[in-house]
Specification:
Shape: flat
Radius of gyration: 36 Å
Helix content: over 70%
Largest sheet: 2 strands, antiparallel
Mean pLDDT: 90
Number of strands: 2
Distance between the termini: 51 Å
Strand content: under 5%
Structural class: mainly alpha
Strand order of the largest sheet: 1-2
Low-confidence stretches: 376-387
Number of helices: 39
Amino acid sequence: MSVTVSELDVTVKTFQEGKGEVQKQAQQQLNEFKSNPDAWLMVDKILQEAQYMPTKYLGLQVLDDVVNTRWKILPRDQCLGIRNFVVNQILQASESEESLKANRVFVNKLDLTLVTILKQEWPQHWPTFINEIISSCHSSLSVCENNMTILRLLSEEVFDFSAEQLTSTKAKNLKQTMCQEFSNIFQLCNEVLTTANSIPLVKATLETLLRFLNWIPLGFIFETNLIETLISRFLEVDHFRNITLKCLTEIGSLQLGQQFQYDEKLVQMFTETLTVVARTISVESNFRDLYAKSRAAEQEYILNLAIFLCNFFGAHLNIVEKLPNPDYLLHGHFYLIKISLIDDREIFKICLEYWTKLVQELYDEMQQLPMTDLNPLVNMGVGGLANGGTHPSSLANYPLRKNKYSQVLTSLRQVMVEKMVRPEEVLIVENDEGEIVREFVKESDTIQLYKTTRECLVYLTHLDVTDTENIMNEKLQRQVDGSEWSWNNCNTLCWAIGSISGAMNEETEKRFLVTVIKDLLGLTEMKRGKDNKAVVASNIMYIVGQYPRFLKAHWKFLKTVVNKLFEFMHESHEGVQDMACDTFIKIANKCKRHFVVMQAGESEPFIDEIIRNMRKITLDLSPQQIHTFYEACGFMISAQGQKNVQDRLIESLMAFPNQAWDNIIAQANENPAILQDAETIKVIGNIMKTNVAACTSIGSYFYTQIGRIYHDMLNMYRASSQLISDAVASGGKLIE
């Protein structure tokens, strides 16, 4: 080729560091070089003579391309030449610790190239590779360290990524060869782990071992001193404890078949690991503060501990539960309780997944009990689990697993209440018309987290409804007395209270809810400042909206709540009107029948009163909030079974929009040009949206209203189209 290495250096440097036209030209030259089928013949010179390191990376890129696309058609002597050249380059660059450190990125790229060659050559054309790499380990510690990296990369390629990059036959062949030759690799790893003192070498070996653990024959793990070495030699050492804990997690996650009798070894590993962890971080520590103040490596250790406990319990909880001494079982779970309180969402999600699995299993076990034993009242038609949580006293005499966890579950209830997240996310966005509107986010990380946390708390309530009620009442008292008052604490508690709707039987729910509402109303009176009052008020609205069963059973309370919502609709504080409208539509949908029937002590159905006073109620609401109000009233009207009454209600509901519509139609008939007026267009859009809102909830019964405005809508559409056509004809097309 006509290009020299020094010229290539200049071109690569121009591409990397230049700008504008010169950079583009350099890129073009490099693309031409890489596409030249003979470019690879220069790779040896490039790697030996290039002064600019990215030029060497370019050489390896070209070589990788040849290995991946043309290896099978190259003569064997050329294949061997490339192979030996790459091996020599690696040995040369890693011959000393200083050299390896200085050329780390380059050596890593060389290692990847060697693994690419191995996938083509090994074992068929290079059967001695494993023996060769093990032999070369004895030449120097730095070579041994890098060889560990090569073995790790090879393991990843064969066992983790093979499905994407290799044929199934090739992958199977590589896996079989690796397993057959693993005893030599294990011997090397074991030798390093038991005798080496070089920190980089031991770290590289542990990283490599981590990749091996999910596929090597189990005898290498459980019938050797590997676990003991990991725990006794590395778990307490700062440099190694994170990677060691990851290795132990991998072992603890292994799903062992019935034919393997390794339970004793697993229990020993768990108890010894927990003992060492306790010496590092006491279970009594405040993990939330500790995590916040810790360095990255210490935070990683806490994360790895959470993963270890969750994975081990997830796979082998039954063998820990069988231990005669329950201390290790409880100790491990209390570590998870403390870790769950850390202000880190990803850590909480890891713990939450395990907690939900555990409480579901405990609940399912409780459900297996004969229903007559579980709740003697069930034979008399009085509520059991189907109608809410069972009283814990009726379960105390059964040898249930949940009894072992009573302290843990009490702490877990407190955690779930404290960590409850916002039930739904609302985005304030600007629509195409420039209006500020609210959009409900259907699926987001927060909503998914809320659903899982709620599921866990509902199971916990079923497992012990009294404990859940007591915890929530105590936390509420601490809001009232001010010892734990904050907006966040008040919000999370109220979201938690709302989340367990339906998990209590009706009588318990009534008592609990009356206490909660009474305390929150008292808190509203007690708090000074509009912001504080608004937070409590919005939480009251949220909770009552979550308990339709209670509202349906107590009409006077339901009416009082709705009237209170109407008051809040005049409140100017940010978010209160939105919350009032959202709660109103929620209640209207869930309790719609109660608004259209005549209630005891009333002179008319409540819907009539609402429609009659609607102008006054919605006076301070934004157009979008008014649409929500119309949709809510539509839900109520849809529950009215008598058609003549339903038509009358629809006519009354739509009276104001229809009046505005009639005025515009009358003006448009006299002067069609008003349809071009910006303010008129805005009013028409608002009327249409009001009709859509009401139609959405009323459904097919809305056709009488549609019939009333249908012809006028068609005429308006025709007139608007004509105005657009005229504007285009006179002004020319704006967009070609």
